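Let us work through a complete example step by step.
Step 1: write down the sequence.
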Amino acid sequence: MPSALDIVIAGGGRVGFQTAEILADRGHEVTIVERDEAIVSEIADEWIATVIRGDATNPDIIEQAGIEDADAIAALTGETGLNLAVCLAASELSPGIRTVARIDRVAGESYTRFVDAVLFPERAGARVAANEVLGSDVQTLADVTGNLDIMLIRVAEGAPAAGKSLTEVRFPAGAVVVSDADGHRIARSDTSLIPGERYVVAVEPDVADEVMNLLQG
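Step 2: predict the structure and record it as tokens.
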């Protein structure tokens, strides 16, 4: 596939719009199809890319969006049936196009018989959606960590965790020390948190302050 792709996104809601922004920032040509006039107006006010008002299950509408020349289509509305219908119609009009559908969790993975990739609502963040659209085998850390913070933290003198091994420190659930001092090897239970040394730590946002308090006081 070429480095710059032509991508159609059905659904201009939060996930659809943010996915479009990410893909456009990466240099891809993006067209959004959205049936709600108010949402179309909001997108048009915020973004200069192509926005088409209409029902993406209508072949005339997705043809207008350039489906025959598109490399991928992502149906990201909140309706599973509509998303699958969009992808199936796109496949008929443009055989070989990559199809991505947002589906309900209860549907399971069985829908991958009909589309190339599925997204579940709880995982359908814009960065995850963008990566599924591109079908990337190699992704940057920023692309795949979602809401996780990956931090390089220097242990402060006098911090609660300073000088202790990982087994001696009660880190909150949602925090993992990944590397030992300055990233030379994976952290182990006997890894010591040496004052002045830096450690790679993966942290969920809601426990970030607690982790910082442990390592920096």
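Step 3: interpret the result. The chain is about 30% helix and 20% strand.
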